[in-house]
Amino acid sequence: MKIPLPLRVSALAIAGALAAGNAAAQTFPDFVVNEGSVTGANPATFTADKITGNYNEVISFSGNTFQAALIWDAGQFVANDGRTPVNSQLGLLFNNQYRLYGIFQGTGTTTTSGSVTGFNFAPGGSLRIFLDPNSNTTFNAPSNGGSPYTTGNSGDDILLASGTPSSGQGTLDPNLPTCTGSSGGGSGINCGNFGASSNFTLTSAGSSYFTSPVPFYNVSFQSGQLNNFSPTGTQSINGSLDVIFNSGGGNTGGPVPEPGTVALLGLGILGLAAMRRSRRH
């Protein structure tokens, strides 16, 4: 699994009207992709500001701590501050298509208030982003969150970036209306959210794929959505996860969003304080 890019992942979530209002005011820094650098792909360049996708995660709980291993599969590039899909060659169907994926490992602590579980990521772990030219890599889940996802048919995969997670938060609330659904029982697909940030560094191959700005952003923000699960033992979960980039110094593409702001940006997972405040009121 590969997720190579120093990222800073900050909290991100679909937290109702409050989140939507904040997200509407947010702008995402642009970046340029050169698909001609991918073996087998057709020559093409485009500008985007967000990458959407899905994730699978194995997370293990012990007391008030957790270990998480995650694989992210990019699905689409988006422009116009996350509003307009961009045509690209991401995919699995045709010879010119390729895959973009990331591998994440992290640890942290949990807090509990009634049925609501909060997640706080600790600094450390790893993030790697890979390019799969032939779209044939397979992903193998670990037995627990302390070990990373492994890959098969990945000998031709290219590491684009790597990084170290620096912070992140999330909230799981099975009593949210979007989680319980009309039938109740907490079986819905929007039961919370999370957001994280990591430092992010491109490899030489990554600089050929992500060509602008130069130097490229050194922080990655990730946000996602949580399906319902029990925060005990080892669990396998999945959901949506989006990625944006920025510069830690704020001199490229504007200031770095605060964790709470990033959490409100996306269709995502780490619905921090916003979700808690929404629930209390």
From TrEMBL:
Asked whether the keyword Transport is assigned, the reply is no
> Does Signal show up as a keyword for this record?
yes
- Outline the extent of the Ice-binding protein C-terminal domain: 255-277
Annotated signal peptide:
1-25
Domain of life the protein comes from: Bacteria
Protein keywords:
Signal
- Pfam family of the protein (one): PEP-CTERM
InterPro entries in UniProt: Ice-binding_C
**NCBIfam families for this protein:** floc_PepA, PEP_CTERM
Protein name according to UniProt: Flocculation-associated PEP-CTERM protein PepA
Source species of the chain: Noviherbaspirillum pedocola
